[in-house]
Each structure stands twice: as C-alpha cells, then as structure tokens.
Amino acid sequence: MIRLLLAVLLGAGLVSDCSRAQEVSPSVPPVEWKAGMTVTAADIEGLGGEESCFAILPVDSAMAARMISGGSYPAEGALIGLDELRCIRVLHVNLVRDTLAGEMVCNKAIADDLVAIFRELFHQGYPIERMVPIDEYGADDEKSMRANNSSSFCYRVIAGSTRLSKHASGMAVDLNPLYNPYVKTTGGKTVIQPATAGSYVDRKADYPYKIDEKDSAYKLFVAHGFTWGGAWNSLKDYQHFEK
C-alpha cells in the first residue's frame, strides 16, 4: 500500500525522485509507518527500502484534521494554505544508535532541501533524538522543545511578539532544541527557551547534540541556503535554521 501510494504521488509530481520506492521481497511483510518508531533493517525492507523512507507527501485530509485538532494549523484565518505545505518522512539515528522514523511538516519550497539534508545526516550517523509531529505536544513549542523534538511548521507567533514566526510558513527548522536553546538577554534579564535548557547555554561546554559552526548539520543547512540563529547578534537561537 505504501509503495502504491508513493508511486501514485511520484507520478503526480508530489513526491521527489529521492523518495522513489524500491521493490520489496514478497517474503518481507509490509510495515506501517509511524513517526517515532524504532526501525530495524527488516522494517526498512518492509517499508519498501531506504529510498521509500525518505519521502515528500502532500497534506491530505487525514493529516489536515490531525494538524487542526492538534493545534499546529488554525481551523480558520491562516495566511498559508495547506497546499503550500508538505510532510516529509525521513530516517534518523539517536545518540544510542537506534534508527527512528522521523516526520515533520514544512513549506513545499524547502521539502527537497530537508529530505536531502536529513538523508545525508542519517548516512553520517548524525544524532537527532526525536522528530515527531508537534501536534503530539498540542502544538506547544515549549513542550516539544523540552522533549528535544525537532520540528518545522507550527502556525505561531515569535515568542514575546505578535509577529508570525518563520515556523508559521514552514520555512524554519528547530533541530535538537533542548540542547540548542533560544537565549535572549534584555535589561539584565535572560530568557531561555525551553526553560529547562539552562545547562546548555554555555556553548563552550561539551555535551551531546550541540550545534556549532563545526557541526555537520550546520554545514549542510548553510550549504542549502539556510541561515543559523546561533549566528545572530541580538539574540541566539542555536536550534534554529531558516530560509
């Protein structure tokens, strides 16, 4: 079923060539994709092979309902249409070398970039702890960040303002956010997001999942035309890449 769906979407131009499915041996039972699940080599075969585990899908009615009920997309008044968004599916590994199914919604303009970036990071064994829909956290960015969940689209404003975030257009990605917090100091008061990330504000310290300019993710995102929030002057957003 997954291979048939991918074939139909590929023919319609809704799935990139990088997500073309491989043939599955009749002896390998099909596997149902679920974001966050641990994936074995047999599971990858059951999903149609590695190629079909890096896919770009349209936001269908079921996914739209999930996003509306979960809170990442408003029931009315959004300045971006669901047809401008895509769901990407990728494989990634965590720090203990488990292979996981990852999923995020993003703008269709960066979907190819993200699949290419995450595929290369997967091949490098780059650790990403979690990548599940932010709707699983009620579209609460603080909860998602505390869980170190990497995400892209969420129709929300910039913290402390009324302006829509780049995430509201799906043109930004937050990667391993617990270990790469947002930090802003104003009038002697420092705001850290997530609030539990105080231990990771010191960027000279050594800890897992840290992003800096020597990091593979940094290099790949920049090579694909993204800017990094960790290089900003007025504040630091070490988890954030936008285009």
Please provide a written account of the structure.
- The protein is of the alpha+beta class and 243 residues long.
- The protein has one domain.
- The protein has helices at 2-11, 41-46, 61-70, 108-124, 141-146, 216-223; strands spanning 55-58, 85-93, 99-107, 172-174, 182-186, 189-193, 227-228, 236-237, 240-242.
- Strands 1-2-3 form a three-stranded antiparallel sheet, with helices on one face.
- Strand 2 and strand 3 form a beta hairpin.
- Helix 4 runs antiparallel to helix 6 (216-223).
- It is globular and about 60 Å long.
- Mean pLDDT is 89; it is low at 1-25.
Q: Percentage of helical residues?
A: 10-25%
Q: Report the mean per-residue pLDDT as an integer.
A: 89
Radius of gyration: 18 Å
Helix run count:
6
The tally of strands reads 9
Keywords, separated by commas or semicolons:
3-stranded antiparallel beta sheet, 17% strand, 243 residues, single chain, alpha+beta, 6 helices
Provide a short characterization of the protein structure.
By secondary structure, this protein is of the alpha+beta class. It is built from 6 helices and 9 strands; from the N terminus they run ααβαββααβββαβββ.
List the topology elements:
Layout: H1 2-11, H2 41-46, E1 55-58, H3 61-70, E2 85-93, E3 99-107, H4 108-124, H5 141-146, E4 172-174, E5 182-186, E6 189-193, H6 216-223, E7 227-228, E8 236-237, E9 240-242
Antiparallel strand pairs: 1-2, 2-3, 4-9, 5-6, 5-8, 7-9
